[in-house]
């Protein structure tokens, strides 16, 4: 980075700081896919529901507002229409726990505590599960499976709102070109932040040609690669200077609120790094989270029962 005169100020903070651990950079990146709420404009208008915000704001569009909107959009039938789906994107863990008031989200700042199991975290996960089993506005995992996933449900107008990353935009444009859809920020309780999906690459210790490896990684964030990412809609380039080009490339297409997508990069939260995040995820996700989403256990019990194992996995060896 020093050799290539990389200036951190040229990059969005959420991206340039993502690979940091103990103030050292451990990987490089391509760009970012922010997560937002996608909604079917026609379904909202048809049901007389006001369109949600088109800006990132510090108030309004709360958990309660989101639930109320989902209720008004849910229609009984076979298969009917479900108001929302939130649980099927793993970005919900960090995003909704922080927006519910957790200071750190999934892991503590030092990466040694499983803070998703603390009250703000497990309460947020319970709120998501309650959308299905208490409020009946979110499809069960079985219904989602029967209808070929929330992607297809949204495209087939069986789902009015969906929490997902910007990678979903290409799928909608390709498979439902006439669908009028837009995006809005994630709902909030204590604050409003989102989590982006960041694709990272690293150089192996002992690599034979580390300088050439770095040349490739650095190329990922320069002009030619950025143009490719913009043209294909693969990711939002990591450098701030390319944001205007990303917005311009979407002119005349859905979603109309593309500026909101780029502005999302100024409102990001990312899980703190740990010594073994993959091991932690294997423990608290999988069957454990599935039982929470299926209503078989409460989020408090499901996350508490694996806390010790997770903290052992991420603790110093």
- Taken as a percent bin, the fraction of beta residues is 5-15%
**CATH T-level fold name of the largest domain:** D-Maltodextrin-Binding Protein, domain 2
- The whole-angstrom Rg is 20 Å
* Mean pLDDT, all residues: 95
Largest beta sheet: strand ordering: 5-6-4-7
Shape: globular
* Overall CATH architecture of the largest domain: 3-Layer(aba) Sandwich
Quickly count the helices: 16
Low-confidence sequence ranges: none
Which CATH C-level class of the largest domain is it? Answer: Alpha Beta
Report the sheet with the most strands, covering strand number, pairing sense and barrel closure.
4 strands, mixed
Summarize the structure.
Helix content is 40%, strand content 12%. The protein is globular. It contains 16 helices and 9 strands.
Features of the shown structure:
317 residues, alpha+beta, D-Maltodextrin-Binding Protein, domain 2, three-stranded antiparallel beta sheet, 16 helices, 40% helix, globular
């Amino acid at each position: 980075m020093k050799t290539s005169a990389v200036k951190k100020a040229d990059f969005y903070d959420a991206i340039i700081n993502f690979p940091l651990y103990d103030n050292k950079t451990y990987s490089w990146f391509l760009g970012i896919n922010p997560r937002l709420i996608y909604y079917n404009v026609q379904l909202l208008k048809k049901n007389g529901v006001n369109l949600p915000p088109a800006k990132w704001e510090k108030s309004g569009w709360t958990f309660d507002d989101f639930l109320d909107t989902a209720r008004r959009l849910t229609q009984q039938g076979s298969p009917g229409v479900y108001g929302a789906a939130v649980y099927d994107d793993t970005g919900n863990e960090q995003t909704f726990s922080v927006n519910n008031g957790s200071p750190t989200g999934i892991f503590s700042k030092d990466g040694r505590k499983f803070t998703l199991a603390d009250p703000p975290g497990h309460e947020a996960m319970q709120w998501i599960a309650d959308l299905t089993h208490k409020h009946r506005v979110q499809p069960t995992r079985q219904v989602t499976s029967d209808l070929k996933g929330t992607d297809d449900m949204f495209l087939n107008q069986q789902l009015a709102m969906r929490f997902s990353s910007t990678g979903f935009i290409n799928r909608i444009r390709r498979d439902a070109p006439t669908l009028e859809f837009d995006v809005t920020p994630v709902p909030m309780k204590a604050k409003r932040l989102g989590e982006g999906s960041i694709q990272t690459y690293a150089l192996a210790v002992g690599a034979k040609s580390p300088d050439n490896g770095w040349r490739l990684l650095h190329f990922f964030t320069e002009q030619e690669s950025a143009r490719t990412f913009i043209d294909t809609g693969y990711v939002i380039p990591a450098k701030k200077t390319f944001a205007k080009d990303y917005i311009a490339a979407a002119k005349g297409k859905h979603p109309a609120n593309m500026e909101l997508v780029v502005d999302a990069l100024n409102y990001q939260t990312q899980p703190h790094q740990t010594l073994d995040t993959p091991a932690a995820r294997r423990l608290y996700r999988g069957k454990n989270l599935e039982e929470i989403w299926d209503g078989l256990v409460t989020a408090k019990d499901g996350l508490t029962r694996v806390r010790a194992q997770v903290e052992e996995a991420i603790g110093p060896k």
